Each structure stands twice: as C-alpha cells, then as structure tokens.
Amino acid sequence: MNQKTEGTAALDGILDGKIPDRDEVEDRLREWISFAASINLQFNLEIDGNSFNLLADNKPFPAKDIEPDLTSTVSSALSELLRIFNKEERRRVFSTIRSIEYRKGVETQTLFTVGPDGEIHTRSRTAEAQTTAAPRPYTRKEKIRTGVIVGASALVAFAISALFVDYGSLFNRTFERVKTFRAAGLEVENKIFHAYFTVEKKTAVGGGKTLLLVLKRGEAFPKADSDFEQLITDSPGSISARVTIEALARGYVRCEFYDQQGKFLSFYMQRISGLRQNQTIELNIPLPSQKRPERLIITY
Asked: What pTM value is reported for the model?
C-alpha cells in the first residue's frame, strides 16, 4: 500500500500447507474463504495437488470495517482455519500473513505465524509514519448540491453525445460484461494434450470472475526425465508434436479464451507440472473482463 492513509488497513502474505488425505478438507478450505469474506477479510485459495496456499488480498480497506479490531479478528479467523487440521497436520502449515494499519502519524504491523504448538501467534510493531489524512466526508447539503450539478451536467452531456454514440450497442456490450458467467456453457477444447491429461471438471468461482478446472493425469503423461526422452524418441518428428512435448517438459500450458464469434479475448499461462506427482490438479484461471467467453482452448 503506497499511500499511508489514516484509518485504512491492508493484509499481505501467504499461508500454505499440505492437504491431508481426507475428502472434506478442500471443501472446508473453500467454506473458510467464504467465512473470511463475510467478516471483510479477503483471501484467494490455490490448490496444487496435495498442497494449498491462501494469498491475502492486499487491497487497502477502511479499518473500521473490521470489528472489534483488525488484529483479534484476523487471529481468530486464522485460528478457525487451523481447526480444519489436527495437531500433527498443523506442523506442516506455515504463515507469513501480515496486517498493516495506519493511524495519525503511526503504522502498526502485525505478523501472524503458526507456532510449534499449532496455534496462531502474533507479533506487532508500531512505528512513526508519514501518514495522510483521510478525505473529509461530504455534508448532506454538499451532497445535494453536488448531485444537482453533476446530474444537470450529465443530462447535457448525454443529449450531445447521443448524436454520436450508439447507446443501444453500448448497453448490450456492458450487459455482456456484467452478465453472470456459467461454466456449464463454456466449451473447453483440449485436443492437443488429450492423450496426456483430461479436463474432469469446470466451475465458476470467485463470484464468477475465475474459472476452476480440474485436470486428471492420463497414462501417457510423462512423470520423469526418462519419460520425456522416450516421448521425443517416439514422436513423429512434426513441429507440433515436439512443441507439445516441450510444453509438458516446461510444465506450462496456454489457456486461450474466445467469444461466441471466435474472436480472441485473452490468454493465461497455467502451471501443470503438479501432474507429475499428483493424479489431479486444479487450475484457477481469471476470466476476461471485457466480454463473456464461450470457448477455452488449452494449447502450447
């Protein structure tokens, strides 16, 4: 957080660990994400095989949104998270989660760690800081006056711009962007890698802003260096075959989104090397913001 605005706070850092061999653990981790969001603490969950990490969202927020106070709320929430694991499992959970809170002339940083006893421990430090006063809230009279001026200006601007702007098309494009994404309607093409892994599940998460894919390793997926060497030896020699093997060796694939007309929207590189050790992995792919995708192609 660059600007140290009084009355604001932020979280950063990561909490990670191993997922025990119990079916309910992943669901409980996702339930905890929802619980944290309900008390205004934002975290992002990533799962890779039998490992997980929780990344704190570092966007600033008003400190007053956290009740009764930031330190005790974060500590209690993380303690609740640890209840998912038994005492032995907690030894493999590590945290660098940190909170930062700004008040006039000072900043307080608190580090939240998992101790040898499997409990959350906090260590705080307060130091002088060059802070900025929060903007003064408008009075009711100022809000009314500002609203009248803005409203009148907007009407004039709209009347003039309507001569040049097709607001019907603009509305349709805007509606397309805010329409809730449903993963069931998304076509996923995995022709290039179908011999090595399959897409077992597709789900919209994060309020419809992220696509969750579950990949399952196939029998032909190379797990060791010798497997890659054998693939190269057995490949037909075409460029596409060699590039496919190179992508598997690097451990990354390219996920491309397209709209209904086949227009390219965006792409993200996703790590799949976890399939060398695990039968399944999860990919969390951000969805395009400008338009709802209709097709996803997994390529090299």
From this structure: 0.49
